[in-house]
Amino acid sequence: MKTQLEVACKLYNTLLHAEQEEYEENKRTMSKNELRQLALDLRKKNPEFQVLHSQVAQQVADRFYQARQRFFDGLANKPKKKKPHKFLSLVYPQSGWRLSNTREVGLGKNKKKRRARLYLSKIGFFTLVMHRVLPESQVSQVCVKLYPSGRNHVIFLVEEAEVEEEHSSGEGEPVEAVGVDLGLVRLATLSLDGRILENPRPLERSLDRVRLLQRALSRKRFLSNNWFKTKTRLAKEHEHVGDFRRDLFFKLGFLLSQEYDLLVLEDLNVQGLIQRGVTGKRRMRLYDSSFSELRAVLEWQF
């Protein structure tokens, strides 16, 4: 898969160069269809680009077009040449992929996970751990993402018809509401019974390990094999911190959604708190608490 990612990055940079030449010569930018057609023409003429599926090549053109439009809208910086080790995803929009051999694994109560084989054109087969059952006929896009730690995630985009939520009148029905106070020492405190959730501070606990890997990375020659190995170890450490924090937030949200009907959160100006932080340790703990991510998870649960 790394070969396809490197080729996709090279195709992206080629489209960027072609766009710059078109603007210098004719003072115009290419449309979305022109970029998609140029990507297909480059794929036909250059054998190196033929390791990409045709629709994947078109999706690379769409990615460049969207980056350019965000620049025109004032939402992002001007598109620049991408580095191969930072181009980490491929998108199969309609064809070029196939799911097969879907089965359950485990015994007894542990028989919850589902495995499947995913075939991607020009790449090969992957063995997936399916987190949920999905209707294959409604899948409109498959995104394969390589994380810096080396893990591969496959994201299926499923199109479903919008269903209007049924709202009950609510007259005479009691609503169990709870307020949640957020803090640095105690991450969450419930207003009704005073239950608390201590802040585990995952980043602070792993800070020594992160600093050690950062120092080791700074001593390696840039883009050497040892540099990539150390960078992968550092990425795994950061992903472990993020996964631990996200798992804690989802478990908290599930617990609260099972017991209460309405959740009230205080509106914190986290950015202002960080800017007014007296010490670096206090600012780090504000980042480590990740109140915005916690709020997003709780809003999704409720």
TrEMBL record:
Domain Probable transposase IS891/IS1136/IS1341 per the UniProt entry, residue ranges: 163-274
Pfam family, one: OrfB_IS605
Protein known as: Probable transposase IS891/IS1136/IS1341 domain-containing protein
Organism per entry: Candidatus Marsarchaeota G1 archaeon BE_D
Organismal lineage: Archaea, Candidatus Marsarchaeota, Candidatus Marsarchaeota group 1
